[in-house]
Amino acid sequence: DKIFTGFSKTRDNLAVIDELLLYWNLADTDKVLDELEEALLVSDFGPRITIKIVESLREDILAGKLKSGNEIKDALKKSVLEFLTKSANKTELQLGYRKPSVIMIVGVNGGGKTTSLGKLAYRLKKEGAKILMAAGDTFRAAASDQLEIWAERTGCEIVVAEGDKAKASSVLSQAVKRGKEQGFDVVLCDTSGRLHTNYSLMEELIACKKAVGKVVSGAPNEILLVLDGTTGLNMLPQAREFNEVVGITGLVLTKLDGSARGGCVVSVVDELGIPVKFVGVGEGVEDLQPFDAEAFVDAIFS
Ligand code: GDP
């Protein structure tokens, strides 16, 4: 699996612990936990989670609840899994019964929004859904060209802005209207992600959300925030802002085939309490996978 190779660095960092645990005895506890702390920090777990994990292991070791290296390793994996699933367990797309379902894809430029939208279209179409794309990034002309390529590649229809001054919200509202009239199952809405005019971007996203909600009540069903996995913990403030303004329902972490450090997945879920719904593991149509927390934990601690 591609996600497994993508985290090779994280795995190497954490493998140090394995060796220590193999010969672990009670007297080594401080040394092992110091190394573990270091490894977790280097892998972008962030100080909050790292300290919680390490201190809870220390407590259980000293209380005699963990008696071998294997037990410590299992407890470690279990606690990481808990961080991933405790507040964010709905990892499946939640699409409404009203048609069309509307999914808005948001995030800063370059994170992989358009690519993820294309891959998601491919995936949903393969499951039998009739998909309409909406080129809501009216700010960059190249963005709708790029989405048109994805529409062609996946055999989906697309609504693009007419004229230069089209508002994103009116493109999306048009698309959802068409989706409703023509029996589409899902409308996938691309949005703008320019950073330098952040304030108006947020206004625009609010307007987009309202506009689609006027056409189909309950829409958008999902607002997925696309985050570039290679930016590590830097993605957190961004994610927080998007969430405060539009209310994110799920995360798509991209570029996990590259140099992403696994811990940032755990940090972002813990910090926001929002589930990762998909992970991007490449640039091809098939390179979007549903997020499987258990497989993820097994992969980074393998
Ligand atoms: P947008 O500006 O947010 O719409 O970002 P794009 O979809 O244009 O993606 C930016 C770049 O990242 C493109 O070159 C994509 O091919 C690449 N990309 C997106 N997702 C992934 C991924 O999961 N893995 C890899 N390796 N590259 C990706």
Can you characterise this structure?
The chain is α/β, with parallel strands linked by helices and about 300 residues long. Helices cover about 50% and strands about 15% of the residues. An 8-stranded mixed beta sheet has the order 3-2-4-1-5-6-7-8, sandwiched between helices. The two termini are about 15 Å apart.
Q: What's the layout of helices and strands?
A:
Layout lengths: L1 H5 L1 H15 L6 H14 L3 H17 L6 H17 L15 E6 L6 H14 L4 E4 L6 H14 L2 E3 L8 H14 L4 E5 L7 H18 L6 E7 L6 H12 L3 E5 L8 H10 L3 E5 L7 E3 L2 H8 L2
Parallel strand pairs: 1-4, 1-5, 2-3, 2-4, 5-6, 6-7
Antiparallel strand pairs: 7-8
The structure holds guanosine-5'-diphosphate (GDP).
Please count the beta strands (DSSP E, at least 2 residues each).
8
Spatial extent as radius of gyration: 21 Å
Query: What coarse outline follows from CA principal-axis ratios?
Result: elongated
Name the quaternary structure.
Answer: single chain
Uncertain residue ranges: none
Average pLDDT across residues? Answer: 91
Distance between the termini: 13 Å
Bound molecules: guanosine-5'-diphosphate
Arrangement of strands in the largest sheet: 3-2-4-1-5-6-7-8
H/E topology pattern? HHHHHEHEHEHEHEHEHEEH
Based on secondary structure, the structural category is alpha/beta
- The helix count comes to 12
Largest sheet: 8 strands, mixed
Helix content: 40-55%
**Share in β-strands:** 5-15%
